[in-house]
Amino acid sequence: MKTITIDDEKVQVSTQPSNAARSFDIEFKPGEIIIKIPQGHQIDLDTILKRRRSLIVRKYREAASKIRLLNGDTIHIRGNPRRIITKQTQEPPEPRVEIQKDTLTIHVKEKENPSSILKKWITQQTQQLIHETIEKHRKQLETLPEKTRIQDTPRWGYANKKGELVYNWQLYTLPPDLAEYVILHEAVHLHHFHHQKGFHRKLETIIPDHRQREKQLQRYLAIPTNFQYKR
Q: Is the pTM of this model over 0.85?
C-alpha cells in the first residue's frame, strides 16, 4: 500500500487481484484508491503509479466531486439522502425496509446481513419503476422489450439485439427524472440500436431535455459492486 497526496489530501493506494476484470479497473472511495489487476498480470504498485499517476489523480478528483448514492450511513432514495438505521427483531415486518422523512430503517434478524435486505428491496422497487415507466410511455415507444432484467452491472442500463433491456438495480436511488431518462433511453435503443440521428430524434419526442438529464446523471456515483453496509 502507498500513500499519495491529492489536493492536500492523503490518499491510500492499494492493488487487489480481480477474477472478473479483463483490464485494469480502479475503484475510488473517500481517501482510498483500489487498483484491480486481472489474473495473470504481474505489475507492482510503484510501476502503476509511475505510468498512470496523472490518470489516477484526475479520476479521483472526478469521483470526489460526484454525489455518492451510498456514503457511509447515508443512502439516496429517489434522489433524497436518508440516514440508514437498522433495527433487530425476531419477527421483522414486511416490507423489511421502511422509509421515513429523513431515514431508512432496515428490520433484521440476528446475524442477518442488512446489505442483502437493502439491495433486494431496492431491486424490487427498481423493477416496479421500470414496469410503470414503460407502461406510461408504451404508446410513444416504437418497440417494447421482450424481457427486462435487473443486474449488478457497471452501466446504468443497456439493450441487446435479442430485444432485452438490462438495468442497474440502483435506478430507484436516482432522482425520478434521471431514472426515467435511463429507462426510456434504453427502451428507444430497441428500435434505434445505435446513437444515430433517428435515435436522438425519437428520444427527444419523449424526453425533450434528454441531453440535460444525461449530463446530470454523470454527477452521481453508483454504489460499489458487492457493497457491504456495516451497521
A: no
Architecture of domain 74-221: 2-Layer Sandwich (3.30)
Average of per-residue pLDDT across 198-221:
96
d(CA 96, CA 84): 13
Q: According to CATH, where is 3.30.2010.10 located in the chain?
A: 74-221
Q: What angle, 0 to 180 degrees and rounded to 10, lies between the N-to-C axes of helices 197-206 and 176-188?
A: 140
- Grid cell digits, residue 30: 473517500
* pLDDT tens, residue by residue, 21-68: 566 788 888 899 998 888 777 778 998 899 899 999 999 998 888 999
Residue 15 DSSP SS3: strand
Q: Give me the phi and psi of 125, to 5 degrees please.
A: -65, -40
> What one-character-per-residue DSSP string does 35-95 give?
EEEETT----HHHHHHHHHHHHHHHHHHHHTSEESEETTEEEETTEEEEEEEEE-SS--SS
How far apart CA 120 and CA 25 sit, in angstroms, is 26
C-alpha cell at 187: 427502451
